[in-house]
Specification:
CATH topology of the largest domain: Nucleotidyltransferase, domain 5
Number of domains: 2
Number of strands: 7
Low-confidence stretches: none
Shape: globular
GO biological process, one term: DNA replication proofreading
CATH architecture of the largest domain: 2-Layer Sandwich
Protein name: DNA polymerase III subunit epsilon
GO molecular function, one term: 3'-5' exonuclease activity
Radius of gyration: 19 Å
InterPro entries: ExoX-like_C, Ribonucl_H, RNaseH-like_sf, RNaseH_sf
Number of helices: 11
CATH class of the largest domain: Alpha Beta
Distance between the termini: 46 Å
Structural class: alpha/beta
Order of helices and strands: EEEHHHEHEHHHHEEHHH
Helix content: 40-55%
Pfam families: ExoX-like_C, RNase_T
CATH superfamily of the largest domain: Ribonuclease H-like superfamily/Ribonuclease H
């Protein structure tokens, strides 16, 4: 059993970890998925499986997670797993380490390719890396050592990573006095959008937090560089960032 002594759950928390063919959530594919589902009563269930990506796994990716073509030859394709996985994630808040920038965009794209409905709307998104970036170092192994006082065995095995991410997140709540309820913790971690592509500027205006327009109001960029916003809509940003961009374009140009 995974003991979360500091988070207070009012619905299941699904802690996700993915291993993949590369680092681009728009074009790469899942080779291993793990979901640790923790119920409000403290019981938990770990679902983990290899996934056949339908393409060769690059050597550089195998060097990170140790999964090669032979390991996934007889594994199911994501499309076959998608309905089961969607049911496992239904009615759950979502958590993990670095999920906002990679795992969730990759997962959303895999579900879309499989034709299975999956939405982030109405869920708390708890990224332990977002907490870690505010206070300490960067990697999950370093976070395990810092918060839990032990080595992270089986790093880059999705199941072990999901279990470790849950324990790290729970320890962070205690160390920094963060809200115990996922919805309240989500409100602390997410200023505008889950992945932090935007932030609040003076007067509460939504401004860019990355790229060549960093610090500029989104509304200004919609007026002066609509092509850049069009480019953003082609990239694998999460749906909340896309919705902000579409709304800004609609306000200025009457299109979404």
């Amino acid at each position: 059993m995974t003991r979360l002594r500091h988070l207070t759950l009012d619905r299941p928390l699904a802690v996700i970890d993915l291993e993949s063919t590369g680092t681009d959530p728009a074009t790469d594919r899942v080779v291993e998925v793990a979901v640790l589902t923790v119920a409000p009563d403290g019981t938990d269930e770990l679902f983990a499986t290899r996934v056949n990506p339908g393409r060769p796994i690059p050597a550089a990716a195998s060097a990170v997670h140790g999964i090669g073509d032979a390991d996934v030859r007889d594994a199911p394709a994501f499309a076959a797993l998608a309905p089961v996985l969607a049911r496992r994630l239904a009615e759950s808040d979502l958590a993990g380490f670095g999920i906002a920038g990679f795992d969730l965009p990759l997962l959303v794209n895999e579900f879309a390719r499989a034709g299975v409905a999956f939405s982030l709307a109405g869920r708390a998104i708890l990224d332990a890396l977002a907490v870690y970036r505010r206070h300490e170092a960067r990697t999950l192994s370093a976070a395990v050592a810092f918060y839990l006082g032990r080595d992270h065995a089986d790093a880059h095995a999705a199941g072990a990573d999901a279990v470790a991410a849950a324990a790290v997140l729970d320890a962070q709540v205690a160390r920094y006095g963060l809200p115990a309820a996922p919805a309240d913790l989500h409100a602390v971690l997410v200023e505008v959008d889950v992945a932090g592509k935007f932030r609040r500027g003076p007067g509460g205006a939504v401004v860019f937090a990355f790229g060549k327009h960093a610090g500029r109001p989104l509304a200004d960029v919609a007026r002066t560089d609509a092509d850049y916003l069009g480019w953003m809509l082609t990239r694998p940003f999460l749906v909340d960032a896309h919705d902000l961009v579409r709304a800004a374009l609609a306000a200025v140009h009457g299109r979404r």
